[in-house]
Design goal:
Length: about 70
């Protein structure tokens, strides 16, 4: 869904993705990597999405500028 809030000059995109699945063996480490940053760091997470013929698939998960794999290995 696409929302445009003319009052605040904001464009809001809402996608139907609510979950990102990982192998059970690395999921706890990924969650810990996400939560390990302090609030002052303002660590963000984002995903890359591949779209084709109106369908989307999550391709990658990033914490800050690092892929989830890189974040786990640190």
């Amino acid at each position: 869904m696409l929302y445009l809030n003319a009052t605040d000059n904001k464009l809001i995109l809402r996608f139907p993705f609510r979950r990102y699945y990982l192998e059970e063996t690395i999921a706890p480490a990924a969650e810990q990597a996400y939560h390990s940053g302090s609030r002052e760091e303002k660590r963000t997470a984002h995903v890359t999405v591949r779209l084709k013929n109106g369908y989307g698939v999550l391709e990658g998960l990033f914490i800050g500028e690092k892929s989830i794999t890189q974040a786990i290995l640190e």
